[in-house]
Amino acid sequence: MVRFLGGLVGLFFAGMLLLSFIWGAVSFVSAPPAPTAEGEFHKHPREIAWSFNGPLGKYDKQQLQRGFQVYTEVCSACHSLKQVAFRDLEALGYSPAEIKAIAKARQVPDVDPKTGEMSTRPGIPADHFPLVYPNDVAARAANNNAIPPDLSLVAKSRHGGADYIHSLLTGFTSQQGYKNEDGKELLKEFPDAKTPEGLHFNPYFANLNLAMAPPLTAEGQVSYGEGQPKPTVDQMAQDVSAFLTWAAEPKMEARKSTGIAVVFFLLIATVLAWMSYQNIWSTKEH
Amino acid sequence: MATEVQGTDAAVHEGEGVRRRDFINIAAVSFAGVGGLAVLAPLINQMNPSADVLAQATSEVDLSAIAEGQAIKAVFRSQPLFVRHLTAKEIAEADAVDPSTLRDPQTLEQRTVDGKKQWLITMGVCTHLGCVPLGAGEGENRGEFGGYFCPCHGSAYDTAARIRKGPAPKNLQVPTYKYTSDTAILVG
Amino acid sequence: MSFPWAEHYTPKLPLMKWIDEKLPLPRFVYNAVGGGYEVPRNLNYFWNFGVLAGLALTIQLVTGIILAMHYASNAGIAFDSVEHMMRDVNSGWLLRYAHANGASFFFIVVYIHIFRGLFYGSYKAPREMVWLLGVVIFLLMMATAFMGYVLPWGQMSFWGAQVITGLFSAIPVVGDPIHTWLLGGFAPGDATLNRFFSLHYLLPFVIAGVIILHIWALHIPGSSNPTGVEVKGPQDTVPFHPYYTAKDGFGVGVFLLLFALVLFFAPNAMGHPDNYIQANPMSTPAHIVPEWYFWPFYAILRAFTMDLSIPFTGIVIIPAKLLGVLAMFSSILLLFFLPWIDTSPVRSGTYRPLFKKFFYLLLVDVVVLGYCGGAPAAEPYVMISQIAAAYYFAHFLIVLPIIASIERPDPLPGSITEAVLAKAKHRPVEADPALAAAAE
């Protein structure tokens, strides 16, 4: 009885699926899905040999400091970094006094101790980076209806991480005459895909057009100190991508070094366990 | 281990083999034990104060606005901190007491910084069971010794915040602090 | 049950004797996983996965209880509280990554455990109850994992909650009220998050309880084995301890090694980047997918694209959405009937030439379903998943009963020991009196 009813249920589901398949296949053949501009012209991020790649990778503190400088002077005008506290910057190699100065230069919201009104005060190391806009409505109003995302976790919340940020920052280009690797020209293939007013064309962005204007435009936009590399657009983009990777995963170095020790320990333990297993079974055929 | 006895008396060889086997089993089990103990470390350590809590482990207090005879309640490590500007009369009252008669013998000098005897900085936590004593706020009951008075179980502290009466065993605790300027201190 | 030749628990220390009289817990453990449990001597490495599943549950319980000490189940701060663990809590990143990846490893282990059972016919009499309880554990695990994924309150958490609870709205008439009741609102919110947290904390203990029943039911007939031939005598078995504790120790080492490699060097590889964006009820991610372990079922859900209707009348009997939901639940519930669907008297797939072929086909089929479930809902993935889902149902409900009646199994070994001996023929025979005796 179970088998009979089960067989009926099986026939029913399998039959419906095959009908669905035939229906889908017919419409697939008669009206194949049209290619989309995103499908053909979206580019995958270029891979960079980051210092933090691989199981032994570490952050380059000099690079993180430069990246922090780029964030401060360029990105922080619109993008917040709310999960990061000033005290965390110690990991970039700043001294407590420098961190105090960095924090003091920013106003954080607090209650005025005298009047009880909402007001601001200079930051202290224990504070987090303050928001740029008090809420989403204000962010939208100031940015042509687009919300600049918080950057604390951006390196983990986008496929490609640091590679993606770097490619996006350096990937702005003119849409006129833009061709992909196959030599197809975007506006010839998809005349409707013209970037709308107020948006900016970038093939590394999922739908090719984003609200952010190219933030890094000229060499020397940020002036690095003595003994640092030349602040080309590519260099600045790399530095800020590294900084944002640190901001998203500040415990990476501890994680990897713990991992090496744990894996080493487990290797020995597993070999011992295997020897013990072989010993115990040595007189038992199995 | 057993290599050099190989080829000698079979019984000895057998015995050595058993011992070598035991050794490996014991080593494997000990390794597992060590691993288990190592895993406990993060499991226990996670209960310690986290980085954001530790970052707020110091407080700065501005003394300039506190008038003579006045006291304020500041916050240090999420606990009340009493900062009191003693009057000359209160200092004299505190100095008049013979420390050897006290439950927790200390002089006002020992409880303040040299040359800043008028600034009495103590935790606002009763040493009996942790209530917040009265006396730091405007118009609060300062108890019969003019210092602080804990309403929970009636401990009375004098003008040097020393325990004088009631169940508390110790004087109000003086936290570590230093003057960052003439009118500001950093506690913690 | 234990075999008559199993060792009896004999406490030597007076203290142990005293405990044994008052509360025979050590005796219970001895008979369950100690020297008192006689197990077939020929188990292969696939038999390690039961113990590994227990270990995975333990890891989840321990890390989960600790994470709950730092987590805030409030929609306003849940996301930030998880980031607080990752950044500020001592070893918090380790514990959270261990819990998130531990869930994936739990499913990897359990899937291997399930397919072990499917291949070696572990669901057949007299072990039907072990199988049924196992399916219950699997269902509970799925519920627990789903609710756990909602807790970090990222974009995938939110939209996962929205979509999965939305399945219930496919039920005719009462669907929408049930949907609202599950969420405690009209969209996932504070109420949803709090009830999911509460249940996510409760269900693992229920799972632990059902696992005890699962092991209890297993101990009545005793463990199965790769030949599927029942134990015939003392030469067929070895005591669980030290033989299988040692083998499991090695298995645990390998498992932890793989777990550590992912946990420390690729902790986000099995997660979705979108879950690092705080939940936003106003914006749906471009491509919603559940965690990878749900992908095969998600593919079945999406494979139904056609309403069941009376042709040319436009009257819909079952809409496609409801069909998908029914099929998805059926794909798991049919496992409850498996012991009575597959009637072949031979347990082990090793001796079933026809079954073996279809089993490997099923394995590939489930992997294909999983791949399609993780892919965007576009062609050709939908068409592939339709074929794959059709085979999934056909395999269990049509193919298995047919094979059972037409297949001619290979000859079975006379006993476990005979099978072991046949395998050992080419190896130098070692001193094993039991084996030597059996060989004569």
Automatic annotation (TrEMBL), chain A:
It is found in: Membrane. Keywords: Heme, Iron, Membrane, Metal-binding, Transmembrane, Transmembrane helix. Binds 1 heme c group covalently per subunit. It comes from the Bacteria. Residues 62-248 form the Cytochrome c domain. InterPro entries: Cyt_c-like_dom, Cyt_c-like_dom_sf, Cyt_c1. The chain crosses the membrane at residues 259-277. One of its GO terms (cellular component) is membrane. Gene3D superfamilies: Cytochrome c-like domain (1.10.760.10), Cytochrome c1, transmembrane anchor, C-terminal (1.20.5.100). Signal peptide: none annotated. Heme c binds at C75, C78, H79, M212. One of its GO terms (molecular function) is metal ion binding. Pfam families: Cytochrom_C1. Its cofactor is heme c. This is Cytochrome c1.
TrEMBL record, chain B:
SUPFAM superfamilies: ISP domain. It holds the Pfam family UCR_Fe-S_N. It catalyses: a quinol + 2 Fe(III)-[cytochrome c](out) = a quinone + 2 Fe(II)-[cytochrome c](out) + 2 H(+)(out). The keyword Transmembrane applies. PANTHER family: CYTOCHROME B-C1 COMPLEX SUBUNIT RIESKE, MITOCHONDRIAL. Residues 88-186 form the Rieske domain. Its EC number is 7.1.1.8. It is found in: Cell membrane. The chain crosses the membrane at residues 23-44. Binds 1 [2Fe-2S] cluster per subunit. The lineage of its organism: Bacteria, Pseudomonadati, Pseudomonadota, Alphaproteobacteria, Sphingomonadales. Its cofactor is [2Fe-2S] cluster. The Rieske protein is a high potential 2Fe-2S protein. This is Ubiquinol-cytochrome c reductase iron-sulfur subunit. It comes from Sphingobium nicotianae. InterPro entries: Rieske_2Fe-2S, Rieske_2Fe-2S_sf, Rieske_Fe-S_prot, Rieske_Fe-S_prot_C, Ubiq_cytC_Rdtase_Fe-S_su_TAT, Ubiquinol_cyt_c_Rdtase_Fe-S-su. Belongs to the Rieske iron-sulfur protein family. It is an enzyme of class 7 (translocase).
Automatic annotation (TrEMBL), chain C:
GO terms for molecular function: metal ion binding; oxidoreductase activity; quinol-cytochrome-c reductase activity. Binds 2 heme groups non-covalently. Keywords: Electron transport, Heme, Iron, Membrane, Metal-binding, Respiratory chain, Transmembrane, Transmembrane helix, Transport. Heme b b566 binds at H113, H214. GO terms for biological process: respiratory electron transport chain. It is found in: Membrane. Its main location: membrane. Its cofactor is heme; heme b. It is a multi-pass membrane protein. PANTHER family: CYTOCHROME B. Component of the ubiquinol-cytochrome c reductase complex (complex III or cytochrome b-c1 complex), which is a respiratory chain that generates an electrochemical potential coupled to ATP synthesis. Belongs to the cytochrome b family. This is Cytochrome b. It comes from Sphingobium nicotianae. The lineage of its organism: Bacteria, Pseudomonadati, Pseudomonadota, Alphaproteobacteria, Sphingomonadales.
